[in-house]
Fold these 2 entries.
Entry 1:
Amino acid sequence: MLSTFIIALREGLEAALIVGILVAYIVRTDRRHLLKALWGGVSVAIAASLALGGILSFTSAELSTRGEELFAGLTSFIAVALVTWMVFWMKRTARTLRDELHGKVDSAVMTGPISLALVAFFAVLREGLETALFIYTNFKTVGAASSATIGLILGLALAVALGYLIYNRSVKLNLSKFFTVTGVALIIVAAGVLSYGVHEFQELGWLPGADAYLWDVTPWIAKESILGSVLGGTIGFDTTTSIVQFIAWSIYLAAVLVPYLSKKGAPAPRVPASV
C-alpha cells in the first residue's frame, strides 16, 4: 500500500503541476477558449494510461507460467529504467519546465486547438504511461492487490488535491524537498522492482543462483503476510533473497542514489504552477 501510494502521489502530482502550468498560462494570456482542447488532450492521455494498465494485466493473466515470468521480468526492467530516467529528468529540467511548456503552448496556438490538445496529451501521457507500468510491476512485487489498490487511489486523490490547491495558491509546498524525498523513495521502490525482475529471470534459468539464498526468513515472515508485502513493496525485501538479487539491489541503489543526491542539477521550483 505504501509503495503504490508513493508512486501515485509523486507521479500524479507531477502530472497535476504540468496541467496546472498549462491551464494557468492559458488563463493568464486570455485564451480560455483553448481550455476545452487542453482538457480533451488530458482526458485522452489518462484513458491511454488506464488502457496500458489493463493491457499489462490482461496479457500477464493470459500467458503460461514461463511466459508470465518472462513478461514480468522484462516489464520490471523497463519500469526501473523509465523511473530512473524520469527522476533525473525532473531534477535536471525542473527550473526550465514552466518556460518550456509556455513555449509549447505559444507554438501550438499558432497551428490550432488540436496542436494544443497534443501538447497536453503528450505532457500527461509521459507521466501516465510510466505510472501504469511502474504500478503494474509494483503490484507484482507486493502481491497484495487490495491494499496496493487502496494506496494507488489515495495517492492519486492526494496528488490531484495538492495540485489544485497549489494552482489556487491555497497551499505552499516546498516542491524541491518534496520531489527530492519522493525521488529517493521511488528509487528505493525501483530497486525492489529490479530485485523482483532478477528473481523472475532466475526462475527462467537465465540468471544463475536461484537457490543460493543470502537469507531465508520464511519461518518467521510469511511471503504473503502483511509485513512481508509491505517490506517487499517498499524496499524490495524478499523473504527468500538470493545473493544475485541482493547484489543487483545494492549496486542499483549505490549507482543511482549517489548521483541523484549530489548537488549537481537543478532542484524543482517551489511553486511552478504560479505563473
Entry 2:
Amino acid sequence: MKTIVKSVVAGIAAISLMAACTEQKTATAELTKSGLDPQEFVDTINGKATALYTLKNANGVEVCITNFGARVVSIMVPDRDGNFTDVVLGYDNIAQYADAVNSPSDYGASIGRYANRIAKAVITINGEDYKLPANNGENTLHGGPTGWQYQVFDAEQVDDQTIKLTIVSPDGDNGFPGEITAVTTYTLTDDNALDITWEATTTKETVINQTNHSYFNLNGDFTRKCTNMELYVNADSFTPSDTAYIPTGEIVSVEGTPFDFRTARVLSEIIDDTTFDQIKNAGGVDHNFCLNTYDMDTYRGDDTQVAASIYSPETGIFMEVYTNEPGIQVYTGNFQGVGRDADILRKHGLKYPKQGSICLESQKYPDTPHHADWPTANLKPEETYFSHCIYKFSVK
C-alpha cells in the first residue's frame, strides 16, 4: 500500500514538474527572439488596436514590427560567430513609443508625409500656399507633430516574411493638401535583407517623402557608442545646411572634406572634427548625401547598386543600403543621450549614449519643395508614389 502511495505521489510530482517546465517553455516561447513581449504592444490608440508582428526567414533572422508608426522594433541577425544580436534601437513597449512628451522618438518609424525638414513650415503648390505646423524651430520636421510615426496603421501580415501597413491621411493632415492612401510593405528575404517599399496615391497634388528611421548599432551593445563602425556612402556630393539644419541650396563636392565616405571610414576619425563647420553645426553628421546611384537626367535611381554601408569590426556584421531615391540622410545620433534624453530607459532597461547609433534614411533631398531644380517630391492624383529601400545584412 505504501509503495502504491509513494508511486502515486511520485507520479503527481513528475506531472507537476513537467507541467511547470511546459508552462515555463510556453512563457519563454511567447517572447520574440529579441526578448520582446508581444503583450506589451497590445493597446488601443486613437480608437485603433496596436500589436507587435514578427517576420522570420529560413536563416533564423527575425524582424519585429509594430503597426504604431509602422515601426521596426528589432532586427535579429547573426554575427561572425553565428550568435544572433539585435541591431536597431528602440523601446520594448507601446506606451513609450506613443509617449511623444516623455520619450519622444522616431525609432524605426515609417516617416510621413514628409521626411526631414521643410523650411519656414510652408509649401507652395500651383501658386497656393499651405501653412504647416512648425515643430522644429520655425520649420516642419518629419511631417509635423502628429506625423505618421505617431499614427496607427492597418496591418495585414501576408505571410511569415511580409507585412503590409496602410494609413489613410485626410486632406489637411498637418496642413498638407490631399487625402493620401499610403502603404508600407516590409519583406524579410532569405538573403537576410529587410526590403521596404512605400506606395501612395493622393486626391490633390501634394508633396510626399517617406523613409525608414531605424537607428542602427551593429556592435551588439547599445550602451556604447558606435563610432568604431565604418561608414561608406556612394556619393560625390552633399547638400550643406545652415545652423537650423535647412539646406543652403548648394550641392558641394565631398572631395577634400570629412564627408568623403567614398572609401569606408571609421566614424571616430571625423565625428569630432569641429574645424569643419558642417560637423560643428550638427554636432556630428546630420546631412543629406547626393547618391551616385541616382541619374539626375532621367530622375531614376538604381536600387541594384550599393548606396551606403556600415560595418562593425567588433561583430563582423555588415549592412548594405540600396534605394531608388536621390539622397540618403546620414545621422549619427547626435541628440541621443543628451540632456534628459540620457536618463530615458529603452529596450531591456538600457540607457543609450550620444552617438550610439547611425541612421541611413533614403529620401528626396531635404526641403525639396523650395528647390525647383532638385528631384521633385510632388505627387499628382494621376500618379502613384513609389519609394524603395533595402537594408541587407551579412558578415565579414
